[in-house]
Structures are given as structure tokens and as C-alpha cells.
Write a structure and sequence with these properties.
- With 362 residues, this protein is an alpha/beta fold.
- Helix 9 packs across helix 10.
- Strand 14, helix 10 and strand 15 form a beta-alpha-beta unit.
- It has 3 domains: 127 residues, Rossmann fold (3-Layer(aba) Sandwich), CATH 3.40.50.11220; 84 residues, Udp-n-acetylmuramoylalanyl-d-glutamate--2,6- Diaminopimelate Ligase, Chain: A, domain 1, CATH 3.40.1390.40; 130 residues, Nucleotidyltransferase, domain 5 (2-Layer Sandwich), CATH 3.30.420.
- 34% of the residues lie in helices and 25% in strands.
- It is globular, with a radius of gyration of 24 Å.
């Protein structure tokens, strides 16, 4: 997690140094700022605090503001956009007595960051979101924990409101083996979950696309699909995108479950591929001919093409690269040709939430 720490007073600068060390040891990437006229470690700043906060707000994933809560609110206010994109913000007083989750408690990760800071510095974590206050696992926290894409934020809000207010039952079911929350939820076996008859909200964890059994269904999409793509030189983005979505449709899978695209190294620079990866917000994994050939030797069942071998030195691209990018996965859609582009889909049935969010990319 990329975290920016900003202090405004002498005591705050001293605390910022401790906070930065703790966060760095925990594996976060930390940038620390302090006023230029104060001694201590950190990048000095002379610009107005509001400008510094505004710039870092758009660059980081989390912020720790060591200052009065009122100051933090005022400098943050002009930069707030959406709970989906805003970073999580924690405010600490200069003596380190409290770590207050101010913004992005759930989706921004501020609640967890406040707990981390409290454990590391001895501060008291202040977390005010209603689900945490009642000891419930909010559906967006569940999604963050297991790297699930929320298909409808509006429905997620309604599920959380139902949990907090007790307005009916909330059922939950997963196609994949996951330790599901029990407090506030009623766990339903997967075979039963797709049938009608539920009167409350139904949360379904699946990458499959199908008509929901009722309007009160929230889909959480596991990011456990990798699309291996083979293409010719100069392929356009629309051609790649069309082939990709055609493959997803044939497999009956949601695009929200894509974790990465993958291809051979010598095609990874194709602007069409890169543009689709950027548009979908996905990494583009690139594998060498040697890596692909090594996998093909161990997997005689994969598709092969002498024409591809002559052109780029391997007998296949889409299937082996999909499997290389999803090492614990299996093919759910083999080589599929659409408009001169080949696509294969690999699915990981477990452990996808432990994967780094970025795959080796160009």
C-alpha cells in the first residue's frame, strides 16, 4: 500500500518518523513530509498544506495526517471524489494518543490502517463505521478481504443497511471455498443459492453470469480469471476487446472477475493489447518463449500450431500464458479465435485473494 504521512508540528514530525518506520516494516511504501522550517526526517515542504494534500491525495492509497482533526477535514474537503477511488485517511494527534479513521474506512482501508497504527504506536483506534460498531463484517469489507469486485455499490449500501438495522435477513453463498462471515449473515450452500424463494438480500460470490433469482441479489465477483491472448502485429484495441468479451460470453463469466491479461513477451508491446489492459485497469503479464515452451513440454494436452511456431517460436500463446499467469488455475475456455485474435481463460478456484494485485507486467 502506498501511504503518505504528513505532519505540521515539531512533535508531529517526531511521531511521523515513528509511524513511517512502523509502516515500512509492515511492507508499505511510505512517503513522509514535514514543514521545511522544522528539523527531523522527511521531505520538506514550503507550499500550502492544502496543495500538498491535494497532490498526494490523487497519488497515494492511504494517508496519515498528523494534525488536528479540523485541519484535516478542511484540507481534504476540496479533493473528495468517491468512496471507490478516494484513499483511506487516518488522522493522528501529535502526541499519538488516537488514530482516527476519517475517510475510506471500508473500501479505502482506513479502518485497518488505524488498527495497524494503534498496534504499532500504542494509540487508541477510533473507528466509527456502523458495521464495526456492531461487530459485523460489512459487505465491502468482505469484498476487500477476499479481493472481490462489487458489481453494484448501490446494492452493497442496501445490504450493509440491512445488516446494521436488522431489516430482514441477509443470505450469503459462495461458489468457491471461502470462510464466510456468520454474524449477521445466513450461509446458504451454493447449489441452493441460485434458486428463487429468498425474501431478504442474497449475496452471491461467483464469476458466473446468470439471471439472479430475485432483484435483491448482490454479486461479488472473485478476481480469479486470467485471459491469455495471442495476436498478430498491429492488432487494434477494438479487435482485442471484442475477442476478449466474446470469450467471456462463451464461458459465461463476468469481466469483473478478470485479474490480468497475459501474452508472449514479443507481443506485449502491442498498443492494442496495452490499451485494452489500461481501459480495464488490468496488468498485462508477459512471458518469454522459453517459459512458454517449458510449460508446453509439460502439458501435451494444450493446443498447438505449427504456423504460430514458425512466426514467433512457440506452438501456442493464449493457453500457456493464461496458465503461467494463473499457476494455480485451470483452463475453463481453451483457445478461441475471434477476428485474428486468440483467447483462452484460466480460473483459480482458491487462493486468488492471496495473489499480489499486480502481475509481472510490461
Amino acid at each position: 500500500m502506498k501511504i503518505t504521512v504528513i505532519a505540521v508540528t515539531k512533535s508531529g514530525v517526531e511521531l511521523a518518523q515513528r509511524v513511517s518506520q512502523c509502516l515500512t516494516r509492515a511492507g508499505h511504501q511510505v512517503k513522509t513530509y514535514k514543514p521545511a522550517h522544522l528539523p527531523g526526517e522527511g521531505t520538506p515542504y514550503v507550499q500550502p498544506l492544502s496543495l500538498l494534500v491535494g497532490r498526494e491525495f490523487s497519488l497515494c492509497q492511504g494517508m496519515v495526517l498528523i494534525m488536528a482533526l479540523g485541519i484535516a477535514v478542511r484540507v481534504l474537503a476540496p479533493h473528495l471524489r468517491s468512496k471507490v477511488s478516494d484513499p483511506g485517511v487516518v488522522v493522528m494527534d501529535e502526541k499519538g494518543n488516537f488514530a482516527i479513521s476519517l475517510l475510506g474506512g471500508h473500501m479505502g482501508g482506513a479502518n485497518q490502517l488505524a488498527r495497524e497504527l494503534a498496534a504499532a504506536t500504542g494509540a487508541v483506534p477510533v473507528i466509527t463505521t456502523a458495521t464495526e460498531a456492531q461487530g459485523l463484517l460489512a459487505v465491502d469489507v468482505l469484498a476487500q478481504k477476499y479481493n472481490l469486485a462489487i458489481e453494484s455499490l448501490e446494492k452493497a449500501k442496501k445490504v450493509n443497511a440491512c445488516l446494521v438495522n436488522g431489516d430482514g435477513e441477509v443470505f450469503i453463498s459462495s461458489e468457491f471455498p471461502l470462510p464466510l462471515p456468520q454474524k449477521g449473515y445466513k450461509i446458504i450452500p451454493w447449489p441452493e443459492a441460485t434458486s428463487a424463494g429468498f425474501t431478504g438480500w442474497l449475496v452471491l460470490i461467483t464469476n458466473r453470469v446468470f439471471d439472479p433469482p430475485s432483484p435483491k441479489v448482490l454479486f461479488l465477483r472473485p478476481r480469479n480469471l486470467v485471459a491469455g491472448i495471442g495476436c498478430r502485429k498491429g492488432v487494434g484495441a477494438e479487435t482485442v476487446k471484442s475477442a476478449l468479451f466474446c470469450a467471456l460470453s462463451l464461458a459465461g463469466r463476468s469481466a469483473a472477475s478478470l485479474r490480468a491479461l497475459a501474452t508472449i513477451e514479443r507481443r506485449s508491446g502491442e498498443e492494442g493489447l496495452q490499451e485494452v489492459a489500461r481501459e480495464l485497469g488490468l496488468p498485462l503479464a508477459a512471458f518469454t518463449a522459453e517459459e512458454i515452451n517449458n510449460l508446453l513440454e509439460k502439458a501435451p494436452h494444450l493446443s498447438r500450431s505449427s504456423f504460430v511456431k514458425e512466426r514467433i517460436g512457440v506452438e501456442g500463446v493464449c493457453e500457456p500464458t493464461a496458465l503461467l499467469a494463473a499457476p494455480r488455475g485451470q483452463l475453463i475456455l481453451g483457445k478461441t479465435r475471434v477476428g485474428g485474435v486468440t483467447v483462452a481463460l484460466a480460473e483459480e478456484s482458491y487462493g486468488w485473494w492471496e495473489q499480489a494485485r499486480e502481475t509481472r507486467s510490461t
